[in-house]
Amino acid sequence: MAKGKDVRVTVILECTSCVRNGVNKSATGISRYITQKNRHNTPNRLELRKFCPYCYKHTIHGEIKK
């Protein structure tokens, strides 16, 4: 039997402050994390506080499209 859409999906979390500020000049890049979420429990976009090595602090990382 074939299932429809998977319940658990892989999502990419990206630092929101790096994207807005264009990243500080000394470090280049944007912090990204890969995680999973349950589509039934969390239908809207996921946001977690994670450490950003480019901002050198904990910031909000939001879900982005693949």
UniProtKB/TrEMBL annotation:
InterPro entries: Ribosomal_bL33 (IPR001705), Ribosomal_bL33_CS (IPR018264), Ribosomal_bL33_sf (IPR038584), Ribosomal_zn-bd (IPR011332). One of its GO terms (cellular component) is ribonucleoprotein complex. It is found in: Plastid, Chloroplast. GO terms for biological process: translation. GO terms for molecular function: structural constituent of ribosome. Signal peptide: none annotated. Keywords: Chloroplast, Plastid, Ribonucleoprotein, Ribosomal protein. PANTHER family: 50S RIBOSOMAL PROTEIN L33, CHLOROPLASTIC (PTHR43168), LARGE RIBOSOMAL SUBUNIT PROTEIN BL33C (PTHR43168:SF2). NCBIfam families: PRK00504.1, PRK00595.1, rpmG_bact. Belongs to the bacterial ribosomal protein bL33 family. This is Large ribosomal subunit protein bL33c.
